[in-house]
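Lab meeting, item 3. Inverse folding demo.
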């Protein structure tokens, strides 16, 4: 349930929902300092027409993690080894590369991405990546299921049917219940109606948890 989710994850999912409501891919990310306080927030803005200062939009590189990391100035980057990056989806190869170069040493993600996920690069034979000693972990399945419900509806709503179905084949093995729920919610326009009514992600998360658990 929403109240059981830690604050960094709550804010990351708020960002993901904002991305969905603005027509971009529903992925959100936050960065916490050594005290666990959220210091930067970002979301996917690939299809957005505007972005806050130090963030990007209307570009295929406008990923949630990128929009978080771009806010960190050179001086503060010295502190990044003690910071933690949270993201609602496994960082892709682009974002994992940015994580490596930024100096972040701790990453947590909610859902896996068997198509474009780059977490496996952390165990590659690349000596530079290995020297960074980055702690990358996927969180519990409930968080991943929340993300996949949003993604399933998004794909079915934004992509043509054949492409959406092809992309969902990469999701269904790890999150079968979430994909099925996303399909049902898409058919009933549940998330679209939630967006139109101004519902918060907290309400949506509670409904997902009730349906899946």
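The presenter then showed the designed sequence:
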């Amino acid at each position: 349930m929403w109240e059981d989710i830690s604050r960094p994850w709550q804010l990351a999912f708020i960002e993901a929902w904002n991305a969905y409501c603005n027509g971009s891919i529903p992925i959100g990310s936050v960065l916490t300092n050594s005290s666990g306080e959220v210091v930067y927030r970002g979301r996917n803005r690939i299809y957005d027409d505007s972005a806050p200062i130090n963030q990007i939009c209307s570009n295929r590189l406008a990923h949630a993690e990128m929009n978080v990391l771009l806010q960190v100035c050179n001086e503060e980057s010295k502190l990044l080894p003690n910071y933690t990056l949270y993201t609602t989806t496994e960082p892709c190869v682009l974002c994992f590369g940015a994580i490596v170069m930024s100096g972040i040493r701790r990453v947590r993600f909610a859902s896996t991405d068997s198509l474009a996920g780059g977490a496996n690069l952390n165990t590659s034979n690349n000596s530079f990546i290995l020297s960074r000693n980055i702690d990358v972990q996927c969180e519990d399945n409930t968080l991943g299921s929340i993300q996949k419900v949003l993604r399933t509806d998004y794909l079915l709503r934004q992509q043509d049917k054949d492409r959406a179905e092809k992309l969902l084949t990469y999701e269904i093995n790890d999150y079968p219940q979430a994909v099925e729920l996303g399909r049902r919610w898409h058919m009933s326009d549940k998330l679209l109606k939630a967006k139109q009514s101004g519902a918060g992600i907290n309400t949506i998360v509670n409904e997902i948890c009730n349906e899946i658990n």
